[in-house]
Specification:
This protein is an all-alpha fold. The protein is built from six helices and two strands; from the N terminus they run H-E-E-H-H-H-H-H. It is globular and about 50 Å long.
């Protein structure tokens, strides 16, 4: 792995998504009365209602794991970019900046939090779709589906249409497909033998 930037990228992205899934569950478990359906994900970092904000016990865990996720994906995206897959690397890097921003700017920062969250979700979905040229079937098909589901859910979430699953449920329909893509994309790159035939033409 040391001599292959793409395998290094895969390890970083897989590790980022995996650690987030673990500590995300931990953060939810230490937040008293947290509702997966009714509460947005970012409530785990700071909960703001009607101009009043509280910092829950989960804040340090959530902010930390989100920042680590963004940082690892950003470095992984850099390795993808220098491997001549510039579109995918660039989109993933933009999403990673947004993810790190979520860890730095919780709900207490108001519109700034909304902006970084949008950047994370929007460019993450685009990166998943763009990666179809880099992946092989059937993973390439799954990456497009995951990206489209994430972006469509983002539109519904922004419009306040939650389809009966609540605000928190709909936000997870935005975030989970992109995290699942990260795991699959990272595993694909990480497990790629150096001797393997060349990947498709870079974008």
């Amino acid at each position: 792995m040391a001599g292959d930037p793409l395998r290094r990228a895969g390890a970083l992205m897989f590790a980022g998504a995996a650690q987030f899934f673990v500590f995300f569950v931990v953060a939810q478990s230490v937040y008293p009365g947290y509702s997966v359906s009714a509460q947005p994900i970012s409530d785990l970092g700071a909960t703001c209602r009607s101009g009043s904000c509280t910092i829950p016990p989960s804040a340090a865990i959530f902010d930390g794991t989100v920042f680590v996720l963004g940082a690892l994906v950003f470095v992984g995206a850099f390795y993808v970019y220098i491997s001549r897959f510039r579109l995918i690397g660039g989109l993933a890097a933009l999403s990673a900046w947004g993810v790190m921003g979520v860890g730095i700017f919780p709900e207490t920062t108001g519109v700034l939090h909304v902006i970084v969250s949008f950047i994370a979700f929007f460019f993450g979905g685009l990166a998943a779709i763009a990666s179809y040229r880099m992946l092989r079937r059937p993973l390439s098909y799954f990456s497009v589906v995951l990206g489209v589901v994430g972006l469509a859910s983002l539109v519904l979430y922004a419009a306040g249409v939650y389809l009966g699953i609540g605000q928190g449920g709909m936000e997870r329909m935005v975030a989970y497909p992109e995290l699942i893509w990260l795991l699959g994309f990272g595993a694909f790159l990480m497990g790629r033998p150096i001797e393997r035939e060349p990947l498709p033409v870079p974008l």
